[in-house]
Design goal:
By secondary structure, this protein is an alpha/beta fold. 28% of the residues lie in helices and 21% in strands.
Length: 76
């Protein structure tokens, strides 16, 4: 079975990320992973570094983003 990690946050993620994109990819590749997603909170700043690391380690990058959505009259 091939495992693809679809929910990862790096240091670029606002609030709950840790480790650099390269560190994530390196560890994932060492475990035999073939594809992983980067789903940062509120930004896409890690995508260049993530793609470079994925290319280096033979992992397919999948890009996404988590955004906050609020109703027009709701307070945060």
């Amino acid at each position: 079975m091939i495992f693809a990690s679809l929910h990862n946050h790096t240091t670029f993620s606002n609030g709950d990320g840790h480790r650099s994109p390269r560190a994530h990819v390196e560890r994932f590749a060492s475990l035999g992973g073939k594809a992983m997603a980067f789903t940062e909170h509120r930004n896409t700043s890690s995508f260049v570094q993530a793609e470079q690391a994925c290319n280096e380690f033979g992992v397919k990058p999948i890009f996404g983003c988590e955004f906050d959505v609020a109703m027009p009259n709701e307070k945060y």
